[in-house]
Design a protein that fits this description.
The protein is an alpha/beta fold. It has 4 helices and 8 strands. It has 2 domains: about 90 residues, Uridine Diphospho-n-acetylenolpyruvylglucosamine Reductase, domain 2 (2-Layer Sandwich); about 70 residues, no CATH class. Helix 1 packs antiparallel against helix 3.
Length: about 170
């Protein structure tokens, strides 16, 4: 069990990273994030919900969580069916603010996006150009985020607990 004082200290430091509007420990918010779409799994409440916007903010959150030995669970759209997007205590990192199209290269047929962009948003971005992903996303549909899917990834940025960013190319 995590000591409340550690959580409060971590909360304060994380608030300095993402701003007060993007971190919460309010019960109604923790309840909203306490389950995924499968009602068979029991509710599990995080100690706080954090909504970073950049990889650098994620890296700072990871540093703080590591400092206080607090577990972290990333969450995309929360549309999974196996309970992976919730946590009992710790920090739930909602990645849906990381939702931008960074680069669309029509000549070399690739697109670089943040992990929190939904399949629906990506397809809507591509549709007017005549391009497509070739699929419509996973079984959880257009609300699923790209970060929760492990196919069609060519390059991946990984943030580890030792604060190192890695670029992994497929």
């Amino acid at each position: 069990m995590i000591k409340i004082s550690k959580v409060k200290e971590a909360y304060s430091e994380i608030e300095n990273v993402v701003g007060e509007d993007f971190v919460t420990d309010k019960d109604f918010m923790k309840a909203a994030y306490s389950r995924n779409v499968d009602p068979a799994f029991p509710d599990r409440w995080a100690d706080m919900i954090v909504r970073p916007e950049t990889t650098e903010e994620v890296s700072e959150i990871v540093k703080i969580a590591n400092k206080y030995k607090i577990r972290m669970v990333p969450r995309g759209g929360g549309a999974d069916l196996v309970g992976g997007s919730v946590t009992e205590s710790g920090i739930l990192i909602d990645l849906t603010r990381m939702n931008q199209v960074i680069e669309f290269n029509k000549d070399d047929y690739y697109i670089i996006v943040d992990c929190g962009i939904t399949w629906g948003a990506l397809i809507s971005h591509l549709h007017p150009t005549g391009y497509t992903t070739g699929i419509i996303g996973p079984g959880s549909g257009f609300a699923a985020t790209i970060g929760g899917v492990d196919f069609q990834i060519v390059l991946l940025v990984v943030v580890l607990r030792n604060m190192v960013l890695f670029l992994i190319s497929a």
